[in-house]
Amino acid sequence: MPPPRIDMRGLSAVKVGVRRFAIDDPYYLILALRWPTFLAMVLLIFVAANLLFASLYWLVPGSVANARPGAFGDAFFFSVETLATVGYGVMTPATLYGHTVASSEIFFGMFLTALVTGAFFARFARPQARMVFSDTAVVAPYEGRQALMVRVASRRLQGISEATARISYLRSEPIGESRFRRFDELKLVKNNIPILSLTWTIIHPIDEDSPLWGMTDERMAAEAPTVMVSITGFDEAISSVINDRRTYRREDVRFGHVFADILRDLPGDMVELDITRIHETRPAPVLREVEIQESAVRAS
Q1: What's domain 131-299's superfamily in CATH?
Q2: Taking the CA of residue 59 as centre, how many other CA atoms within 13 Å lie in the half-sphere pointing to its CB?
Q3: H runs (alpha helix) in the chain
Q4: Helix axis angle, 72-84 relative to 96-125, nearest 10°?
Q5: pLDDT, tens digit, 9 for 90 and up, residues 149-194
Q6: Of 67, 165, 189, 197, which cross-links 74 as Cys (Cβ 3.0–4.6 Å)?
Q7: Does residue 124 contact residue 35 with C-beta atoms inside 8 Å?
């Protein structure tokens, strides 16, 4: 069995020595399963439990009144009615053995119902961020030099209070004969805003202190770095703290582009945000002049 793969919104890894699903960590197991797998597991437990108790009824003929002798189907559906506590039709426990097994099944059914209900609640109650990140990051002119920019917005109508952004730069750095993965936190023009209600362009100015200083498309292709953007805030729609992130690789960074304007003024001091165009970019014609200025600064 291949080792489990981790996908952190674009940053993929494989962990050796860990299991994808651990029985000794049932809470994580319940939350980590996909919905189809989770529903299939609940159905499997339900069927298995009824098969077990049906076998107990079937092995002792006469324990269930009005059940056809040797009919396993009657024993199975009697078990379903008992486990679900829906009340009996023509079949009822007929002997002390039948009452004992039925009582045990009802006791088991109470715990099973509580566990399944709790599992459904845990999955539905888990806060889900509904953020949308631009498909690409851009390196564009900003205040006389270049800057790395990423655009984000919320898919919900309500805003994100106290939104905080971080951009981390992951690269492989040789130290001696080994190579280490290093995270550098990039300085932002503004790393938090009181409310994210429309869209937010997160900007990292590329200055002499930036790991991206002097970065070109060719150098980025050689270093193959990873840029990770994370957003944290209080989602007013669900009254919960949310966190979301997006990872950008070299092929996701566009040099010489800026984000297209997706805001439009409407009558009555209203503003329209077209979130379907959040990924659009356009060439920045002045980027070449900025590159010439930076080259002159580095040469001096």
Answers
A1: G protein-activated inward rectifier potassium channel 1 (2.60.40.1400)
A2: 8
A3: 26-32, 35-59, 72-84, 96-125, 217-223, 287-299
A4: 60
A5: 999 999 998 899 999 999 999 877 766 676 677 788 999 999 999 9
A6: 67
A7: no
153, β-bridge pairs: 132, 199
Reported as a single tens digit per residue, the pLDDT across 231-240 is: 999 999 888 9
Task: Give me the residue spans of the domains in the chain.
Answer: 33-125, 131-299
Q: Which residues contact 13 (CB under 8 A, 6 or more apart)?
A: 5, 6
CATH number 1.10.287.70 given to 33-125: yes
Q: How far apart are CA 134 and CA 246, in angstroms?
A: 9
Alpha-carbon span 284 to 282, nearest angstrom: 7
Q: How far apart are CA 156 and CA 236, in angstroms?
A: 9
- Determine the average pLDDT of the residues in 130-137: 94
d(CA 26, CA 168): 32
pTM, 2 dp: 0.71
SS (H, E, C) 213-276: CCCCHHHHHHHCCEEEEEEEEEECCCCEEEEEEEEECHHHEEECEEECCCEEEECCCEEEECHH
Say if residue 2's pLDDT is above 60: no
Q: 244 is written with which tokens? A: 């979301």
**How many whole angstroms from its chain centre is CA 67?**
50
